[in-house]
Amino acid sequence: xxxxxxxxxxxxxxxxxxxxxxxxxxxxxxxxxxxxxxxxxxxxxxxxxxxxxxxxxxxxxxxxxxxxxxxxxxxxxxxxxxxxxxxxxxxxxxxxxxxxxxxxxxxxxxxxxxxxxxxxxxxxxxxxxxxxxxxxxxxxxxxxxxxxxxxxxxxxxxxxxxxxxxxxxxxxxxxxxxxxxxxxxxxxxxxxxxxxxxxxxxxxxxxxxxxxxxxxxxxxxxxxxxxxxxxxxxxxxxxxxxxxxxxxxxxxxxxxxxxxxxxxxxxxxxxxxxxxxxxxxxxxxxxxxxxxxxxxxxxxxxxxxxxxxxxxxxxxxxxxxxxxxxxxxxx
Length: 331
Description:
With 331 residues, this protein is of the alpha/beta class. The protein has helices spanning 3-11, 34-37, 41-49, 75-85, 94-100, 106-119, 137-156, 175-189, 210-220, 231-236, 284-293, 307-312, 315-328; strands spanning 60-64, 89-93, 122-127, 161-164, 195-199, 227-230, 254-257, 299-302.
């Protein structure tokens, strides 16, 4: 297909809620870079003071179980902790689901679906690391097969989304090539009923930039292309938070919630530096205001990997504090 006609076909879907739909013209987050926005704690504090009031009445607060992954608990224990902490939504890691279900046994998946329904809980998404994006054709084919099995397992428990990060892409892969591969993932998952979310990883050479992720989605020519973003990865990748004005909320079924400190400098940050929402310097209220102004009605999912929290508190305490910190952004 001609690339320009592909772009036109995709852009023609924007008014139906694709990426960029209602977002153009919205200016909730200023046009400064992420680095400028977090240049100092004082600046960040001033921004937060001036932030608009947010309405939490329709928010689905979610626990990404990666937040308590280091406690090495089985899936059912993670889910019970989430429920006890006050969550009704979770993102689960596929390795935990695979272990629980004896390699995705239909009977075990049905058992889990029954438990979730009985507890009034919803699985918003699955976190996996299939190698769908890599250059090596054999590894990519294996990755697609893995992703298909994972998506089928998630569908069996009522989950509608699966993360599609740049797992295994250690070198920069051209946008056109990634778009072709992401299109294949979308086509693979469409009949299953699970949406793959193109995940921005700040340190990734291939998917560290929101501009590249938007271009990839546009190049697929598909209106079901969608993103998985968070403040940490956007900042770590040197992105401007003003770019979120170009992303329809409807193209973000899940937004990962975390924060980052003012030091060390951006390029030296890693996943373990993430802190509870509101405890860092990210302009989270402005970010959330932009999301909701652009039609976001998805899940806000706590995702942290801070080893200090494991030393300081139990998994239940960490889950509870995270929920309290997210709710506090809406006060």
